[in-house]
Amino acid sequence: QVQPVESGGGLVQAGGSLRLSCAASGGTFSGNAMGWFRQAPGKEREFVARISRSGISTEYADSVKGRFAISRDNANKMVYLQMNSLKPEDTAVYYCAINPDKYSGGYYRMGQGTQVTISS
């Protein structure tokens, strides 16, 4: 079974950039849509981005549209989230997920998360 493992989080000043990576070991990676959720302290987990199995189709939360970009490398079983123009409100634990649903918040599997902290 495919299991996501995130990396790339850290502390960045507002306006800066970060690229999160997700390595998906096991299973058939290219057969699954992939995506990202995030959860800030005291808040519910929220959908961030989703990419189709082929990588052709992407979806984003309104709060990150135009600033974040999701991509995937099926040959190497990797998913990336490029985050630009970061804001303090982007501070959260970011989770890589298999088959995420933008509207229900559902997913098949999720990683342990990576912390992203944006300082003002």
CA radius of gyration: 13 Å
Number of strands: 11
Unreliable stretches covering 5 or more consecutive residues: none
Helix/strand structural class: mainly beta
By DSSP (H or I, 4+ residues per run), the number of helices equals 0
SSE run: EEEEEEEEEEE
| Percent strand | over 45%
> What is the 3D form?
globular
Helicity level: under 10%
Largest sheet: 7 strands, mixed
Please, what is the average pLDDT?
A: 95
Descriptive key words:
globular; 120 residues; seven-stranded mixed sheet; mainly beta
Report on this model:
The structure is a single chain. The protein is mainly beta and 120 residues long. The chain is built from no helices and 11 strands. Strands 2, 4, 5, 6, 9, 10 and 11 form a 7-stranded mixed beta sheet that branches. Strands 1-3-8-7 form a 4-stranded antiparallel beta sheet, with no helix packed on it.
